[in-house]
Amino acid sequence: MEDNAPYQEEQSPQEEDATLNSQTTRLEYLRNEARKNKSEKFCPPGTLVSYSQPLANLDEELSVKPVEDLFTFKDNPNLWTIVKRTIQNLGLSYGDLCTSTLYTISSLVYAKDGAIPSELQILASASTIFWLLVLVPTIKYCVFVPMADHNGEGGAFAIIGLLKQHKVKKRVFQVAKIVAMVGAGALLADGTLTPAISVVSAIQGIQVGAPSLSTSTVVGISAAILFIVFLGQPLGSSRIGWAYGPILFIFCICQSIAGIRNILYYPKIFQSMNPWYALRGFAYVWNDGSVGFVKLSAALLSLTGSEAMYADMGHFGRTPMRLGWLCIVFPSVVLSYFGQFAMIAAQPEIAIEAGDKIFFYQVSSQLLWPLIIVSTLAAIVASQAIVSGAFSIMGQAVAMDLFPRLRVKRTNTKIYGQVFLPEINVILAIITLSLEVGFRTSSALTSAFGVAVSTSFVTTSFLYTLVVAYAWKKPWYIWIGYPLIFGFVDLLLWSSALTKVPTGGYVPVVICIVTVFLMSVWQWGVTQQKKYLATHCLQWSEYQRYISSSSSPTETPLWWPYRVQGTGIFLTSSVYGIPYPLKAILNKLHVLPRVLIFVTIRSAPVPFVDEDVRFHLIRYSCSLYRLVVNIGYAEKVLRIQQVLRTAEVQLTPDIQLLHEPLSFFKGRTELRPKKDTNVIHRAMVRLCNILKHVSANIDEVLGLPVDTVEIGTVALI
């Protein structure tokens, strides 16, 4: 929420020396980007983007462009870089899709009353999973949805940024924002459930080799592993990707070999590639007494992690994401599913004997423990995919002012989407460990899983349709096909998953509702605060009447403010209008420094900003300036004193910052309800203030002096 304070993301200390001491790398990068973008005009080296803007004819909307319009992140990696990123992305984004083979089959064929699945049920199950994998992750998330990226970022809020960039209708944008909030809540719910179900499914394999091992011991081991997973998040996606990529690659090979071995005993399983079997399964009554439509919620588990493909796209790029799925993951999971179904078709009694551990019955006793070890490591990898996606989407929410300001640490200097949010990491860890202890087994967790996954699918399809129709402005006969096919599939999966709400599906529903509620309340508070400040702040016409460039009270009327020697630095998050603290000082003290500078520090979506375009100065008069400082996301956070020293040599001669006393001012707004408001309104105002108080403090980040003057404002809403 705007508090007249600039916001700048934190830089990982380990990356500072490697990225910031290399001036050549920085300059070459930006100059290459300048050559690619012919419309971007750079000033000669060593100059400042500066011009005069008369107060009488002020139109600041045209004065300072949005930072996303000034800088556009473009990534053109070479072949070797694509190969490296594919390996890293394999360990980051596909763990969940790969390890879904650990628990999906059990949900489809296991019956508590001991009924053995028929051959038709087995072929229908295999056909349903195969065609869901073709339609959703392969076509939807590999072909269509990745085209809707915003500066290389994926996810629900990336689509919102894309719609905003194309200036769609306000009504469309508001609807899209609400849907994106729901999608973000579903992804966060997915981020808490995925680590729990993946790890416990792998650890349950130990009970196959050691039947005496209790469920409580399995839960304890799983909880310890999950704790280590969340503890390692500050390392960043690249380091985690290099460690996890080879592990998942080995797991893919192992499950492919096991699948091929079992397929040889029942090659008829390839008949399930005929979609007719999947369609027959809808009306078929299965061995547990349920209808095929209800069983869709179990087949849906094979798609868990598909949304992470898109949400994690900003970490390594679109091409590595597509290559990893099409060349490695998709063939591996298809062979594994077909192999498990072939084993059950050849020996139907295994479906009852194995319970929720069918995956580990594929190999002999000599290979069981190696498979358990590899599966456990792969489950740890699976936990990473959706956690990284949660970091990305919440970082986007913070940037769009849909969530309180959080500490955002960039963990890679070359890729915009690699971020780490400590607060979100702690919240995910607490909820995940609680679910692990509460549900205890993978079969209990699967009921909750499907609702979160299918909700993400529905919201993404809806938002993508809006992009095609309103942002790209395609004719209706082109974009209508997408919702008719993929929207129908998503709604079918979602409606089937909702049948599991009473048996555990309420967990993601609660998480989603809480997330949407907090985002909605925060956005409401931001809007109300902006409206209040807009109507109560000093207008340019008033300022022109009050302010004189003269510093002597004898030369001006007595009601004019007294101008003292020095420079006043007003920190503001907005590049428009007059900061509210200035009006408060005028009303209370009737004293102002001789020179006033409104300073805004903005984070640009490029790794480095060349010195040629770092500063943007608007000169309103000989005593009033606006200074906008653009900082690349890979650069060290500039302290405010460093900003002023660097800009001083480029400011006009009448401003000598080092030789004049500096006074720093920042604003803080407290929301209070009006007297005639109801209880709900008062509760929302109170919640907004609580969220403001727990948001990240920028004083230490910017190195503000201890004598900075904070002007408090009470906004009645």
Automatic annotation (TrEMBL):
<keyword id="KW-0813">Transport</keyword>
<feature type="domain" description="K+ potassium transporter integral membrane">
    <location>
        <begin position="86"/>
        <end position="540"/>
    </location>
</feature>
<keyword id="KW-0406">Ion transport</keyword>
<feature type="region of interest" description="Disordered">
    <location>
        <begin position="1"/>
        <end position="23"/>
    </location>
</feature>
<dbReference type="Pfam" id="PF02705">
    <property type="entry name" value="K_trans"/>
</dbReference>
<feature type="transmembrane region" description="Helical">
    <location>
        <begin position="447"/>
        <end position="469"/>
    </location>
</feature>
<feature type="domain" description="K+ potassium transporter C-terminal">
    <location>
        <begin position="566"/>
        <end position="714"/>
    </location>
</feature>
<keyword id="KW-0812">Transmembrane</keyword>
<feature type="transmembrane region" description="Helical">
    <location>
        <begin position="506"/>
        <end position="526"/>
    </location>
</feature>
<protein>
    <recommendedName>
        <fullName>Potassium transporter</fullName>
    </recommendedName>
</protein>
<feature type="transmembrane region" description="Helical">
    <location>
        <begin position="367"/>
        <end position="394"/>
    </location>
</feature>
<keyword id="KW-0472">Membrane</keyword>
<keyword id="KW-1133">Transmembrane helix</keyword>
<dbReference type="InterPro" id="IPR003855">
    <property type="entry name" value="K+_transporter"/>
</dbReference>
<feature type="transmembrane region" description="Helical">
    <location>
        <begin position="476"/>
        <end position="494"/>
    </location>
</feature>
<dbReference type="GO" id="GO:0015079">
    <property type="term" value="F:potassium ion transmembrane transporter activity"/>
</dbReference>
<feature type="transmembrane region" description="Helical">
    <location>
        <begin position="172"/>
        <end position="189"/>
    </location>
</feature>
<feature type="transmembrane region" description="Helical">
    <location>
        <begin position="323"/>
        <end position="347"/>
    </location>
</feature>
<dbReference type="Pfam" id="PF22776">
    <property type="entry name" value="K_trans_C"/>
</dbReference>
<keyword id="KW-0630">Potassium</keyword>
<dbReference type="InterPro" id="IPR053951">
    <property type="entry name" value="K_trans_N"/>
</dbReference>
<keyword id="KW-0633">Potassium transport</keyword>
<dbReference type="GO" id="GO:0016020">
    <property type="term" value="C:membrane"/>
</dbReference>
<feature type="transmembrane region" description="Helical">
    <location>
        <begin position="243"/>
        <end position="264"/>
    </location>
</feature>
<feature type="transmembrane region" description="Helical">
    <location>
        <begin position="415"/>
        <end position="435"/>
    </location>
</feature>
<dbReference type="InterPro" id="IPR053952">
    <property type="entry name" value="K_trans_C"/>
</dbReference>
<feature type="transmembrane region" description="Helical">
    <location>
        <begin position="209"/>
        <end position="231"/>
    </location>
</feature>
